[in-house]
Structures are given as C-alpha cells and as structure tokens.
Amino acid sequence: MKAASIYRLALSTIVVLVNVCPLIAETQCIYWKDNLLQMHCNCSFRGFRYIPVINIQVKFLDLSNNEIQIIQNSSFEILRNLEELDISSNKLNYLDKDAFIGLIALRKLVIGNNYELTYSIRSFATSLFKPLISLEYLDITHNSRTAMDVNFSKNVLSDLVALNSIGIDLIGEHDTTSVIGEGFLSLTKLRTFIAGYCDISFDNKTFINVPYLEVIELEDCSFEIYSLGTLRKKKLRFLSFGGSGLDILIEDNVHKFMIMIEDFGTAYIETLLLTTNFGMLQCLPSDFFLRLNGTGIRHLILNENSLHEVTIRKSYKDPIRYNSILPVTLRHLEIKNNVLQTFKVSMPHLSRLNLERNNLGYFLKYNRYSVTDTLNLTDINLSSNKIDRLHASIFHGHTHLENINVSNNYLTDISFNISHLIWLKTLDMSSNRIEGFDETTMKTLNHLFENSNLQIDLSNNTLHCNCQNVPFLLWIFERNTHFPLRNSMSCEFSNGSTNLRSQFKRTVMQLKKECTSYTALEICLSIAIMGLLITVFGGLVYKYRWRLRYIYYMTRSKYKRNIPDDIDGNYKYDAFISYSDNERNFIFKECIPILEGQKHIKLCIHQRDFLPGEDITQNITNSIHESRKIICIITRGFLDSFYCMFEFNMARMESIYSRGGRNILFLVFFEQFRHQDLSLVMLELIQKDSYIEYPNDEQGNAIFWKKLGEAINKGQ
Ligand SMILES: *[C@@H]1O[C@H](CO)[C@@H](O)[C@H](O)[C@H]1NC(C)=O
Ligand SMILES: *[C@@H]1O[C@H](CO)[C@@H](O)[C@H](O)[C@H]1NC(C)=O
Ligand SMILES: *[C@@H]1O[C@H](CO)[C@@H](O)[C@H](O)[C@H]1NC(C)=O
Ligand SMILES: *[C@@H]1O[C@H](CO)[C@@H](O)[C@H](O)[C@H]1NC(C)=O
Ligand SMILES: *[C@@H]1O[C@H](CO)[C@@H](O)[C@H](O)[C@H]1NC(C)=O
Ligand SMILES: *[C@@H]1O[C@H](CO)[C@@H](O)[C@H](O)[C@H]1NC(C)=O
Fold it and tell me: What confidence tier does 247 reach under pLDDT thresholds 50, 70, 90?
C-alpha cells in the first residue's frame, strides 16, 4: 500500500514536471463556441499523457486518442460546467477514487477503447462514480475483454442513480446473473442497454437485474447459447440484433434462430432490428411473422441480409400461409439491401414499405407486391431494384399512397397506373432512363396536378432535346411547380452533346424556335410535294381518262353480264350508230330503213336497243363492245353532247384494247366543219380516210349509202 502511494506520488511529480514545461503549439487544445455559445474544447490526437488544464467554462471536452494512463484525484475538479467528457481510445488503466470529483453537471461520459481497463476495482476505484450525480449516459465498451468482476456493478456502477443509458462489454466467466450484476438494481432510471464486446450465454437470468429496460442493442453478440425466456415479458421499444454475430449461429443451427424467434414472441417489442444476421438464410422461417404477431411489433427492419424471397409459402406442417400475412400491428417494414427476387405478402395495415436495393426488377414487371389492397400504405420505396417496367396495376388499391420512390432504376416512362392516387405527394424518378413522357402520361399527370401538389423528381435523367420532345419540355416548364429540381435535369441533343443545367430553359426556348421554323419548312415542303404529286397524278389520270373509264366499264360488265368475247367476228350488231338527238329524224327515216331494210345490216340504235334499267354508260360500253363497227354521225350537236363524245372515245378505246388496234371507227360528217373545230383524234381519223361526208343530194346519197354499207361490212 505504501509502495503504491509512493509510486503514485513519484508519478504525479513527473506529471507536474511535464505540466510546467513550456507547451509546444501543437499540443494546445482547440476551443470553440457553438450556436448556443456553449464552449467546446477539442484535445484529441494531441499525445497528452495527462489531463491538461482546461478552461473552466468548457461544456464539451474531447480528450480521446491521447496517451493518458491514469486519472488522478481532482483532475477535473474545477470543471463544474462540463456536460460531456470523452476519454476514449487512451491507455487508461486506473481511475483514482476522486478522479471525477467536481463533475456535478456531467451528463455523458465515454471511457471506451482503453484496452487495459478491466471491469474491476483494479481499474475503477470503489465509489469512483459517486460525484457524477447527473450522469445519464455512460459508455465503457470495448475495453480489456476480460470478464466482469462479481462486485463491479455493486461497488462501482450502483452510484449512478441518474443513469439512463449504458454501453458495456458482456464477457462472462461466471454465472449469467453476475454479468449484469445486482448493482444494476440500483439504476432505477436505466432504460437503454448497449452491449460492446459480447460473449455470454443468454437465459432467463441475464436481464433479471435490469427490469426497466426499454432498449436493448446486442449487435456484436455470438449467441452461442440462447435459451427461451431471455426476453420473457420485457416491454421493449427497441430490440436490435444487428451486427454479424448471428451468422455463426445460423451456420450452426437454424433451430437456435427459431428459438430466438419464439422468444421474441414472449415479449412486447415495438421495433425489431435484425440486420446482417441471416448470412445463411435465404428465406424467413415459416412462422416468423406469426410469432411476431404477439409482440405488438410496429417496425421491423431486416436490412443488409441475404433474403431471396419473402412470399406466400405453404408450410409443410400447416397449410395456413404463414409468411403471407404481416403481423397486424406492423406499420413499417424495411428489407433494404438484400437480394430479394420475390416479394409478395398481405399487408392491409402496413403504412411504410422500403425494399430499396434488391433484385425485384423482373418480379415487379409481372407481379404486384401486395396480395390484398394496401389501404394504409403511404410510402413505398423501390429504389435500386433494376426495374425497367412496373406492372401496370402495381399501385392499385393503394388508396392512401403519398410517396413513391422508384429512383435508380431503368424506367423510361410512367407506364404504371397512378391516376387514382389522389394523395400522392412525391414521385421520385431520379436516376432513371427517362427521355420524355408520352402524351398519355402527360394527360394523366395533368389530371392529377389539378387537385394536388404532386412533386416529381426527374433529376439525373437525360431528357431528349429534339423537336419531337419539345411538347414535353415545354410542358415541364408550364408545370414547373411540380418539377422542383428541374434545373438539375440535363438534356441531350441529337448530335450527342449535353447541355448544362443552368441553360436548360434558354435551350428549350431556342429549341422551340428552331423546331417551329423547321416545322414551317417541313409543312411548306410537304405541301409543295403534295401539290406536285397531285398535279402529276391528275395529269396522268386526265391523259388516260378514257382508257381508265373503258377499263372500268369493261371490268364491271364482265362481272355483270359475262358476255362471250367476240373476237372471232360474231358480233351481235354490225354497227353501233352514235348520233346526237338532233339527228333522230335522219336515223329513223333514212339510216334504219336503208341500212337495215335494204342492206340487211344489223344496227345498234341507243333509243331502240339499249337494255332498260341499266346504266347508260354501261349500256354504251357494252353495245360498243358487241358491235363490229362504230359509226359516228358528226354534227355540232354531236361535238357538244357529253354522251356522243363518250361513245366516240369509248369506241377508240375499244379499238385499241379489244380489237388489236384495228380501226372500227367510221365518221360521217353531216355538216361542214373547219379543221379547228375538230379534235386531234378526229383529224387523225380523217387522215386515215375513215370518214365520209353526207352529200345531202339524191345522187350523192346513193353513193353515200353504198360506201357506208361497204365500210360497215369491211373486215367481216
Ligand atoms: C477534434 O479534432 C479532431 C482532429 O484534430 C477531429 O477528428 C475530431 O472530430 C474533433 N472532435 C470534435 C468533438 O470536434
Ligand atoms: C485520492 O483520494 C482518496 C480519498 O479521497 C485517497 O484515498 C487516495 O489516496 C487519493 N489518491 C492519491 C493518489 O492521492
Ligand atoms: C389505417 O390507419 C389508421 C390510422 O393510422 C387506422 O385507424 C386504421 O385502422 C388503419 N386501417 C387498417 C386497415 O389498418
Ligand atoms: C425510400 O422512400 C421513402 C418514401 O419516399 C423515403 O421516405 C425514404 O427516405 C427512402 N429511403 C431513403 C434511404 O431515402
Ligand atoms: C429515394 O430513394 C433514394 C435512394 O434510397 C434516396 O436517395 C432519395 O432521397 C429518396 N427520395 C425521397 C423523396 O425520399
Ligand atoms: C448540338 O446541337 C445543339 C442544338 O442544335 C447546338 O447548340 C450544339 O452546339 C451542337 N453541338 C455540337 C457539338 O455540334
């Protein structure tokens, strides 16, 4: 004892000597004041081996990462304002009994990461913490990794009557009760328990001395032994089994994990965090949700695991679809950063669902994630899931949806139905592959915008700056209150260059102008081309009008009357007489009696031989086709008559197309004509001598009829 005090005296002398030595600039602490004018002092990473002199007004003192080994009596005596003290990551091995004397305002103390510090009176003098009447938070984790002394809690910790939260290593050589020993019973305000190093067996005695706990964080525990009853009847706001400890357990025996889940079912747990626990587990045990049903769970966090599927799965033992129904009390489910390929559950009571960073792209293309209507879901996060298209009715039945996050996917448009989501506030589509929306999407959104302040985030998409997309780009400007981050959207031209965000507006306006003139040019050009085409086509039609008509009528008559082709010379009529009505008398008084009566030529006279009930044009074409020769009685009336000219032209066509170019037309000039009164084709016929003039005197007439008869019979 004496030797020890002499040793300490000598040590303090050295410390004092060092203390009076002039300090080098670098070893000075840094002082600063925060917004509330509270003084902070940062003495970390300064190589201190002792506690330096600190300004009396300091409220926050950081002494971490130095080389302090011993904290002596009265080291902080004057710091009556100090509220937070960090002495972690030093080389502490002993704290004197009166080390903390004077720290009556201290609320938070961190003495972690001092690997020589043990949970015993060798390191912590008895009643060391007695002066810390305000201490609420104590962190003494990650120290020597030796087992806790049986009396440590009773002799050292039990004085911290104000303590609300403790972080401590759980290393157990002794029976489980002694780890969190009797001394803890005095800490009536203790609510939060955080394990640092953690290697003990858990059973119904482990937490017996901490009956008021609300938060338990066991993140680095090995759980080699975990027995039913550990959490029985605990009322926990937060229970965390994060960290990687469970991996080993799962590898060993899934059964242990089942026991753990069964144990959860015996407690009340508001929030359960099971992260990086299921290293080996690709799907949840079949009774997982069923067990949690009894816990009153509201938040379930299963992030950073390796789950492949959470879905309807019939249990071998029980046909009830265990995993398909979430606990009824559950409001918030997170399964971030797993490898989910399938997710489909019944979630009528859930209000927030976060499935970001999974692999659901393929599944959600063809499926919905909810079995039933999700009446209470307000938030859904499907960010980073390699989604290129979502099932059209994916959000059906989501009557209260407020936030959709589909950022960081491969979407190109809003192809899923959102028209019924009247409460929607945000739609995060950032970092996708959207070049523009199509018209239907814009229409749907216009409709939604009418009654809501929906905000759509399109940042980090490369919109297309081309003429087709101008309506979309302009639409975004018109609706700018709904696209809050539109300045961070970029726009790519057809030539591959991307414009800067700040010039976006100017670029779109310029593009609009360019495209308008371009469109005008386009319209003019198309009109010109159309005009040209119409002219050419019209010209062709005009040029071949008779040919076309002839073909048209011949085709029609073939279908209707099916006349045998008389190319062999057996015509129904010898001649078709085409005349204008003014020449009626001539036809009936002279022509018919002479040609039919005397010369036995069979004539086709429209007034006499046309089939009643048939179209006149059709009658004409058929009769011409059935006559060997066509005689036109050319008068002024003939030239002025539509039907006469029709007959003339049809006869021409007949000769070209059905008679192998043989001349079947014969003109009779009933009057005198000047050449310019006649059409070119008629002049052509005159040149071919296929005409005769009506002399209108008795002698001449006899020759005329003889000649005409010969002309008709020629080529028989
Ligand atoms: C103190 O300074 C160190 C670097 O010198 C820094 O890393 C640390 O965060 C600071 N601590 C506080 C509480 O500001
Ligand atoms: C610190 O104070 C306690 C009692 O207040 C005393 O027993 C102990 O010897 C002191 N330590 C040193 C190194 O002076
Ligand atoms: C939805 O939430 C409201 C309020 O949070 C609650 O009153 C209602 O019962 C819930 N409905 C369902 C089906 O869970
Ligand atoms: C996921 O989406 C929800 C709803 O939009 C949002 O509240 C949450 O912050 C998102 N997650 C992250 C990590 O941003
Ligand atoms: C959507 O999720 C991404 C990625 O998790 C996140 O960065 C973003 O803030 C979220 N958006 C909203 C509106 O919460
Ligand atoms: C691409 O086209 C845009 C608009 O037509 C123009 O402003 C830009 O200078 C062009 N960039 C290149 C590299 O040609």
Answer: low
